[in-house]
Amino acid sequence: MAMDYAKCASDIFSHLGGKDNIISAAHCATRLRLVIADNSKIDKAALEEVDGVKGMFESNGQLQLIIGTGTVNKVYDEFLKITGLTEASKEDVKKAAASQAPLWKRILKVPGDVFVPILPAIVAAGLMMGLVEALGKAIPGFASTDWYGFLDMVSNAAFAFLPVLVAISTARVFGGNIFLGAVVGLCMIHTGLLNAWNVANPDAINSFFGVTDGVIPTWHLLFFKVQRVGYQGHVIPVILAVALMCVIEKWLHKHVPEMLDLFITPLCTVLSTVFITFTIIGPIFSMFENAVLAGAQVLITVGFGIGSAVMGAIYPLTVVMGLHHMYNVIEAGMLSGELGKNIWMPIASSANFAQFGACLAVAIKAKNAKTKSVALPSSLSASLGITEPAIFGVNFRFMKPFVCGMIGGAIGAWFGALSKIGATTYGVTGIPGLLAIDNIPLYAIMLLIAAGIAFVLTWITWKEDEPKKKAAPKADAPKAPEKAVITCEAGTIMQPAIGKVIPQDQIPDETFAAGILGEGIGVEPTEGIVFAPFDGVVSSVADSKHAIGITGPGEMELLIHVGVDTVAMNGEGFEPLVAEGDEVKAGQVIMHFDRDAIAAANHPDTVVVLLTNSDDYENVKITTD
Amino acid sequence: MKTFEYIIKDEVGIHARPAGILAKEVKKYASKITITNEAGKAAEAKKLMAVMGLGVKCGQKVVVTIEGDDEETVAPIIEKFFEDNF
Questions:
Q1: Would an 8 Å CB–CB cutoff place B59 in contact with chain A?
Q2: Alpha helices per DSSP H over A277-326
Q3: What are phi and psi for residue A89, nearest 5 degrees?
Q4: Where are the domains of chain A?
Q5: In this structure, what is the dihedral angle of CA atoms A191, A196, A201, A207, given to the nearest 10 degrees?
Q6: Which of A544, A568, A612 is opposite residue B49, by nearest beta carbon?
Q7: CA–CA separation, A253 vs A248, rounded Å?
Q8: Domain harbouring B37, CATH code
Q9: A263 Cβ contact list (under 8 Å, min separation 6)
Q10: Does the CB of B50 have a partner CB in chain A at under 8 Å?
């Protein structure tokens, strides 16, 4: 029988001495963790008897109730409902802050959030793909070599299957199961569907479906007609599909009985998501795509290059929407039509190259190492015509570079149209486009105009988000407490961990408490960080990683021992950041430790700070809270 | 100079706490007492940090050297101490 979470939560609540007595509530994998104002008001015996509570103990100011994996979160949700408390995790503070932004801002933020984690997969691949393809065009015969085939495969894999990466990342952003997200993404580019890049290629359609009329077959599902075309090159429909999936999944998790959850929820989630995607999201998108396509074709005929300029401006937007793969249709049509040359390509090239210029400006101007390291290869890849990393990873995220790129693209495209240049093939833009254009100097000037304008505008208007960056480390990286805990004639020992300083005799360990290892204090940590307590040299780091010895001024030998009996954890949950012989400065972070891991191993996490040679000094003074 | 060999039986090896107890003990005597681990690294027994730095584990052998005026009397005491504590 499924547990009654609401009853469990309300039973727990009834023994806690009222709502005002609960300061905060959180949970980990198995436990409900409560911070209680006055422990004397709670009925511990009764708490242990509550149905669903498998155990209880107190640790570093928290009352921890063991409830169990998979159920604790549900009890926790109920508990929040009853108490009216809110989750106070960092994530939620962030979310709360984000939810105050206007809706359109939050929506625009989604593609960036989705793309940032994918960047490692696509930035380098994009650059390599651009290079390989450029070499294939530049060196006669290279395109037919084995190396070309191999390199092309490796570098374009991330792009060929981009919807899967996008799906996984989206599932993570929206809190769904990433594997189900991956399945949805995989469905959208399933090998049983025609590759979206081939929709305008009758030969490919004929050979793929075994038909002769070049028409893509459809499935009849209920009253929907589904064209059997994949979503290669798409981003927005994938994000929409997986976002929808997350909503469905969460709803089902709540409403499906626990016993059937593992079977019913994934099945219904994937089935309904993919169905809705192919019957509703997809068709709406292809309607939209066709409208854009038709509109684009009309647009570029507008005189004096104005239509082309407009197209150059909105081109990157269509890349964001994932519509750009449709343009092959236009390009192929131009080549085979009366014009005989591809005048679409200069527009696309201007637009792409302008994004390169904007991204390059960010790469050069950015001080943040991470931004720089993403922007530089992304811009190079954009210069070769692969703009996704630059657009999603950089320009669109910061928005201003994106807009500057649109302006540069518009002016470049305008110049391209007026100079009447055209390409002899399709599918290449940027620098490789030099090989496909009928007038190389004019094309080069066009690229320079597009990129130059975008670069200069970005350089002038875009500023790195300084205050945000300054605030972030403050919130995320707590500073060392500026308080001396032990002083003697040799020097001062600062408090090495954040939390309440307790006298030595209250350290929950006889040996430490009795002062056999020297005089000292304990800190009941609230953060899993150890700071260097003075300028000194690391004299030892325990193999089990939980203790660090430091020799300080006047030969002070200090032992910082995290937790009690934590040697038994064999280093799990401890991450010393220094090694024997390292010099450290007061306040420097020397170790991270995982308080949850220590609690899970049933040890107190008191940070024991002992001056092991306190006998050598006469005036040892201890300060506690 | 007196020496003896000892194989550590304590599960956690010579860790902070046992090392501390040892440091306390040896400070009572005039002799210089050194512990050498299997790798040949030596540490003065009264220096807690140095002893911990040896990283001696359960089942490993240490060589203990006692050198000084009271070595004759101290050696058996220290040997006994190792047997009791490690």
A1: no
A2: 282-299, 306-321
A3: -75, 160
A4: 5-88, 481-622
A5: 10
A6: A612
A7: 9
A8: 3.30.1340.10
A9: none
A10: yes
Q: Is B2 on the interface with A (CB under 8 A)?
A: no
Nearest to A612 among B15, B20, B57 (CB): B20
CB contact under 8 A, A561 and B16: yes
The confidence band for A135, taking pLDDT boundaries of 50, 70 and 90, is confident
Which residue is associated with the tokens 């309440």?
Answer: A500
pLDDT digits (tens, 9 = 90+) for A163-193: 899 999 999 888 889 999 999 999 999 988 8
Q: Nearest to residue A558, comparing CAs of A516, A520, A596, A600?
A: A520
> Which chain A residue is nearest to residue B48, measuring alpha carbons?
A612
- Grouping H, G, I as helix, E, B as strand and the rest as coil, residue A389 is helix
Q: Return the structure tokens found at A465.
A: 């988000």
User: Would the CB atoms of B55 and A542 count as touching at under 8 Å?
Assistant: yes
Cβ contact A325:A197 at 8 Å: yes
Q: How many domains does chain B fold into?
A: 1
Q: Which residues in chain B are contacts of A542 at CB distance < 8 A?
A: 15-16, 52, 55
Q: What CA–CA distance (Å, rounded) separates A61 from A483?
A: 21
This prediction's pTM: 0.49
SS3 category, B82: helix
Residue B62 DSSP label: E
User: Which residue in A542, A568, A580 is closest to B16 by CB distance?
Assistant: A542
Spatial separation of the C-alpha atoms in residues A170 and A500, rounded to whole Å? 41
Q: Is B53 in contact with A549 (Cβ distance < 8 A)?
A: yes
A571-575 mean pLDDT: 84
**CB-based contact (8 Å) between A540 and chain B?**
yes
Q: Which two tokens stand for residue A435?
A: 């090989």
Sheet with B2-7: list strands edge to edge: B2-7, B61-67, B32-36, B42-44
- Rounded to 5°, angle at Cα A520 from A36 and B13: 100
Question: Are B50 and A540 a contacting pair at CB < 8 A?
Answer: yes
A203-207, A311-315, B61-65: least confidently modelled range: A203-207
* Ranges of H-type helices in B1-86: 16-26, 48-54, 71-85
Task: Decide if B60 touches A, using CB distance below 8 A.
Answer: no
> Rounded to whole angstroms, how far apart are CA atoms A165 and B42?
55
Instruction: Render pLDDT for A319-371 as a digit per residue (tens, 0 to 9).
Output: 877 677 667 767 777 777 777 788 888 999 999 999 999 999 999 988 888 78
For residue A29, the model assigns a pLDDT of 62
SS3 content of chain A, % helix, strand, coil (to 5): 55, 15, 30
Asked if A516 lies within 8 A of B27 by C-beta distance, the reply is: no
Q: Looking at the complex, does the CB of residue A616 fall below 8 Å from at least one CB of chain B? A: no
Is 50 exceeded by the pLDDT of residue A90?
A: no
Q: How far apart are CA A341 and CA A449, in angstroms?
A: 22
CATH code 3.90.550.10 for A481-622 = no
pLDDT of A489 reads 84
Average pLDDT, chain A: 82
Q: The tokens of B54 are what?
A: 């040896």
Residue whose tokens read 């070309």: A148
Structural domain of residue B75, as residue ranges? 2-85
Classified by CATH at the fold level, domain A5-88 comes out as Gyrase A; domain 2 (3.30.1360)
Report which of A269, A279, A265 is spatially closest to residue A242, judged by C-alpha positions: A269
What pLDDT, in 10s, does the model give residues A246-301? Answer: 999 989 988 888 888 888 899 999 999 999 999 998 888 878 877 877 888 788 77
In sequence order, the 6+-apart residues with CB closer than 8 A to the CB of A251 are none
Pick from B21, B27, B53: CB nearest A580: B53
User: Is the Cβ of B57 closer than 8 Å to some Cβ of chain A?
Assistant: yes
Provide the pLDDT for residue A450.
92
Q: Which residue of B has its CA nearest to A509?
A: B17
Give the pLDDT band of residue A49 (cuts 50, 70, 90). confident
- Rounded distance, CA A275 to CA A287, Å? 18
